[in-house]
Amino acid sequence: MAKSVDEFNKKRLRSSNITVVISIALVLFLLGLMGLILINAQKYSDYIKEQLVVNAYFDENYDAKDSLKIAKLEEETFKKVQTLAPVKKATYISREMASQEAKKSMGIDADALFEENIFPSSIEVALKPEYVDPAKIDEAIKIIKSVPGIVDVKNDSTLMVEVYNNLTKILRWILGFSILFLVLAVVLINNSIRLKIFSKRFIIKTMQLVGAKRRFILKPFIIEAIVLGAIGAVIGLLALFGVWYYFTNQIGSAFVQNNQQYFWLILLVLGVGILITVLSTIVATWRFLRTNVDDLYYS
């Protein structure tokens, strides 16, 4: 009879542990998924911002006999622009390239349209993402315009502001959902642990009544919590990266290839899983340590 009772208790304990691990894994899977989305959304936001360019123009009025001298000055100016703090990437566009681009944009291939290259040479500047901010774009333009040889800098400020604001709104929503999932992770994991500790409330109280210290009682529960939290986090991470790998293969995009960010995400998910599990275990166990024996039947 005693053997059957022990087997029943062991089965119930295994079932309880499996339930807790699955709950932790599911919650951390969702939390990690939001982390991956946030990382990639930030990277693609920066990529889109870098496609918004400003054009720095050279002086178009000069004597043909000075063309070699002007070409050398433009090359020096181009090198200076490349080293400026707001500049992510700079591309030199010669007068010939500018004329060809103009013909393409107008849908005309005839060379006879222009008797000569009437468009000035310029530098197409892709700004760093932080300088696409409407509050800093004017500062970036001033810095570029201050370079000797640059006579004018033009940009589509309306488009930049609109794109920047839309990307900022999207990132805020994603960040908001990530915080929400973190709160849900805390609540759901805490509830799962509380139910597990609740089933052991009589064992906890019995240990206390026979003279065991609170630290001694807490120790095995904390160790078990660390193990369950780690197992749940590992299962959640394996499922997360399995789904993400399948998704990226299906759409044919590798998304962000930044191993450092993935490493920190793994540490975050693992840390959150263990931390919440341990804290929930301590709080739930401490509650029953402070509870009277008679109240255990109504807790």
UniProtKB/TrEMBL annotation:
Q: Which residues cross the membrane?
A: 20-39, 170-193, 221-247, 262-289
- Record domain ABC3 transporter permease C-terminal: where: 177-292
One GO-annotated biological process of the protein: cell division
GO cellular component terms?
Answer: plasma membrane
Every FtsX extracellular domain range: 54-153
Report which superkingdom the organism of origin falls in: Bacteria
- Please state where this protein is localized: Cell inner membrane; Cell membrane
Q: Is Transmembrane given among the entry's keywords?
A: yes
- InterPro entries per the UniProt record, alphabetical: ABC3_permease_C, FtsX, FtsX_ECD
Q: How does it sit in the membrane?
A: Multi-pass membrane protein
Could you confirm whether the keyword Transcription regulation appears in this record? no
Which controlled-vocabulary keywords does the entry list?
A: Cell cycle, Cell division, Cell inner membrane, Cell membrane, Membrane, Transmembrane, Transmembrane helix
Read off the Pfam families from this record: FtsX (PF02687), FtsX_ECD (PF18075)
Role, per record: Required for cell division and gliding motility.
Record family assignment: Belongs to the ABC-4 integral membrane protein family. FtsX subfamily.
- According to UniProt, the name of this protein is Cell division protein FtsX
Q: What organism, scientifically named, is this protein from? A: Chryseobacterium daecheongense
Q: What is the lineage of its organism?
A: Bacteria, Pseudomonadati, Bacteroidota, Flavobacteriia, Flavobacteriales
